[in-house]
Design goal:
8-stranded mixed sheet, 6-stranded mixed sheet, alpha/beta, Alpha-Beta Plaits, 2 domains, Alkaline Phosphatase, subunit A, 391 residues, 21% strand, single chain
Length: 391
């Protein structure tokens, strides 16, 4: 097999994990609750792949004969964070959760940050990325103070207007914060959140940049790169892994741009892994609890799947999955602790095989390693033998 195209439908969970109550996520099911609340959700291609056949997805039609193999997976890692989900997909298990700051960051963090940047901090609380601009954007423009906020995730986010704080300056502030937020105060990601516009009409730009921790061990990305394979990161993948194991990358502006860039790479000569994250599901609709918008975004992606199918080479394998849930019908604005779907399609993949419930997201990494004939990662079990057609 020459390539795996792995597309993460960011936050498209498919039901509460057995321990979801511990995370305050009773009754969550991102896909099913969207389908329940959106009249006639039109996702025929995902349905044909078997997404409605998954246990717990009762409000999406199932099919008698799926065109690919399908299943779902538990998360072993102790959390529901973007970094944690992607790292587990790549073969790591994270037993210790990343630090979170539900009451904002302590003075031990904020004071040296203010001293280093020469700017005061506004907000310093968990907040919605759009609401924080409405509340503090005008004051930021008048004073030059930085909007610093967090969420239920392990993140230190800095929002600044591009006319007030130049992009490169904002990135330099983030780099300092990244250096500072290690050890005792470690967070998974520092995120630059630039925006433009005027009070009442602020818009975040595509110049977002994530500064992640480096993975604490080798992932399947590192193993592929060491084996001389291509590891092409589309969207925020390169940031999530801090560039480790990536041979080529491109940032994207939207889900549809992510699909366009994935297709562009599929049409090129490469061998290995094309790893794409479609972030709009999560950032634009999940966190903002926009059920209708989330439903439309799934429909838009589903409508692009025929293009992806058509551009698969005979020995390509397409895998669709997620990294956590973000049920827009749930309370709050946080991710939700959920199973993720695993949909697999290609000419070398059997139709209508249910791979069941996998015990860890790392089974995806193990399967990729099996497909691409490299040594298996430390965690996970391959399901490739269940789904591959015999030569």
């Amino acid at each position: 097999m020459s390539r795996v195209i792995l597309i993460i439908m960011d936050s498209l969970g498919v039901g509460a994990l057995p321990d979801a109550e511990r995370f305050g996520d009773v009754g969550v099911n991102t896909l099913n609750n969207i389908a329940k609340n959106v009249s006639s959700l039109k996702i025929p291609n995902l349905i044909n792949l078997g997404i409605g056949n998954l246990e717990g997805v009762d409000d999406v039609p199932n099919v008698e004969h799926a065109i690919g193999s399908y299943g779902r997976s538990k998360e072993v890692s102790n959390g529901k964070d973007t970094t944690m989900g992607h790292w587990e997909i790549a073969g790591l298990n994270i037993s210790e959760p990343f630090n979170t700051y539900p009451n904002g960051f302590p003075d031990e963090i904020i004071k040296p940050f203010e001293e280093r940047t020469g700017r005061k901090v506004l907000c310093n609380l968990p907040a919605s990325g759009t609401e924080v601009l409405e509340e503090f954007g005008k004051e930021h423009m008048e004073t030059g103070d930085l909007i610093v906020y967090t969420s239920a995730d392990s993140v230190f986010q800095i929002a600044a207007h591009e006319d007030i704080v130049p992009i490169e300056t904002l990135y330099a502030y983030c780099e300092f914060a990244r250096e500072m937020l290690m050890g005792q105060y470690q967070v998974a990601r520092v995120i630059a959140r630039p925006f433009v516009g005027t009070p009442g009409n602020f818009t975040r730009t595509s110049n977002r940049h994530d500064y992640s921790l480096k993975p604490f061990d080798k992932t399947v990305l590192d193993q592929l790169k060491a084996a001389g394979k291509d590891v092409i990161a589309v969207g925020k993948i390169v940031d999530i892994f801090d560039g480790e194991g990536v041979t080529e990358s491109i940032h994207t502006k939207s889900n549809m741009d992510g699909v366009d860039q994935t297709l562009a790479y599929m049409k090129k000569e490469n061998e290995g892994l094309i790893f794409t994250n479609l972030v709009d599901f999560d950032a634009m609709y999940g966190h903002r609890r926009n059920i209708e918008g989330y439903g439309k975004a799934i429909e838009e992606f589903d409508a692009r799947l025929p293009e992806i199918f058509e551009n698969l080479r005979d020995d390509d394998i397409l895998m669709l999955s997620a990294d956590h849930g973000n049920d827009p019908s749930h309370v709050g604005t946080d991710h939700t602790r959920e199973y993720i779907p695993i949909l697999v399609y290609g000419k070398k993949i059997k139709d209508n095989v249910n791979i069941g419930t996998r015990e860890t997201f790392a089974d995806i990494a193990a399967t990729i390693a099996d497909i691409l004939k490299i040594d298996p990662p430390k965690n996970g079990s391959s399901f490739y033998s269940m789904i591959k057609k015999e030569d």
